[in-house]
Every structure is written in structure tokens, then in C-alpha cells.
Amino acid sequence: MDTLDSYSLSHKRRLHIVPLGDFHVGARNCNYDYLEYAVNTVKNLKGPKRVYLLGDLMETADRRVGNSVFEQDLSIDDQILYLRSLLKPIKDDIVFLCRGNHEDRLIQMYDLDLTRILANSFDAKYGYQCHDVFKINDKEFQVMAYHGKGRSRNLQLAYGKVLRELGNFQADLYIYGHLHMTGSYREFVWTGRDIKQKTYILTGHFMKYWGGYPESKALSLSPESFMICGVNKSLSVDCNPFFIHERRNDLLT
Predict the structure, then answer these.
(1) Which one-letter DSSP state was computed for residue 189?
(2) Hey, which bits of the chain come out as E strands?
């Protein structure tokens, strides 16, 4: 049986939980500059980190999806090479890679699992769902991560979708991608002895709105963004969103 990773936290020290996903590397409206800013921000965090990659890291377009294959600016092999280089500075902090629907395209067509290839590069686990358990000050903490599916046109409905789809799983922190939204939601449970907090995270994305799919469908504006969470010695979670217009106005266009 594997020994659980264990962290000793005191005072203001935090364990950083970093979910990153929906890069869509290879798509013409991928914001590479903000993506590199995000990875550099994670690299410079002080203290222990656990990074979860939530899928759709690559565009992997094909001719079955409109003209998307002609809208790529990197070939699929170059998408893999770019991701390996991009994530190298934080590779030791990556604990799991979730498959997204874009990576799933190549499994369905060619039985080619790009998530597995990347995971092997980082010596990390991979799959459709992540059920991660570790200890903080000798207490177990559970993370459930899933790429996601379907669509939601606003943030309020997105939270309900996440609760419905992941409610069958027990965890302290739930991480959900795919929807290209960023936010956090908390609910509290009485255990019979104390109050337990559950936190739900929407992980964000790195796709420019203008000139791409969101603009063509008149979807709600959702700026490029990512989330960094901190868990303290009491297992409480705080969530810090990084929206592009608040962090890097020079990258908005």
C-alpha cells in the first residue's frame, strides 16, 4: 500500500493546491503569454505545492469538428513538445493529469493517449478522474478532480452542475474544468461532532474571447484566468483567482 504524502503546517504556512486546465495549446486564440505567466506564478510560490492538470491541454483538432483543424497554429506533435517545455519548471509538483474531451478525440480515433504520454514525462498519475488523498498535520485531506462535460452559460448554474455531477464522491476539495469559468463555492456539513467544509472550484481557461469560438456563439464573457488555492493547518481552503484583466492588462489583446 502506498504511503500517503504528508505535510506539516503551522501558523501562516499553506499547502498550495493549483488546478490548471483548458490551455488549448495549438488553438489560434490560445493566450500563450498568459499561460506562461501562470506557470511562472506557480513556480514562484513559496512552500509545498500540488498541481492538478485538468485536461484540454491540447487542441488536437480534426476534420470532424468543422474547420478547427485549419485553425491550429501548432501541429499535434509540436503541441506535446510545447507542453513538455512549458511545464518543465513545475513538473515535480504535478501529481495528476485528467483527460479532457480534446485529448479523448485521439483515443477514439487512433487509440492514442496523449495524456498518458505527458504523464509519463512528468512521472505523474493520469486518468479521467483524480481521487487524491494526503495528510495535513496527520489529518486526511481529499481532492476530487474531473475535467467536466457539457455546457453552462452562467456561473450560478455552473455551480449547480458541479454539485450534481460530483456529489456522489466524498472529498474536501472538488476541482472541475471544461466550462471555461473561474470561481469557488463552499458548503458546510455537520458531521455530528463538528462542521466540515466542502469547496468546489471552477478552474478557468487560457482562451481569448475575441476571434474565437466564444465570440462566434455570443457566450458570456469569461476572461482568461486560473485559480490558486491554499489549505491551512486547520484544513480550511482559501481560493485566489487570477483574472487576466486584474494581473496582466498588457496581454488583453
Answers:
(1) E
(2) 6-7, 15-20, 49-53, 94-98, 125-127, 129-136, 139-146, 173-176, 182-190, 195-203, 225-231, 237-243
Residue matched to cell numbers 485521439 = 106
HSE toward the beta carbon, residue 200, CA cutoff 13 A: 21
First CA to last CA across the chain, in angstroms? Answer: 50
Cβ contact 189:227 at 8 Å = no
Listed residue (7, 86, 78) closest to 49, CA to CA: 7
Reported as a single tens digit per residue, the pLDDT across 64-81 is: 554 454 467 888 899 999
Provide the 3-class DSSP secondary structure of residue 220: coil
Residue 94 class from Cβ within 10 Å (0-12 exposed, 13-18 middle, 19+ buried)? buried
Examine the pLDDT at 143 and tell me if it is beyond 90: yes
Say which residue the cell 485559480 belongs to. Answer: 227
Q: For the whole model, what pTM was predicted?
A: 0.93
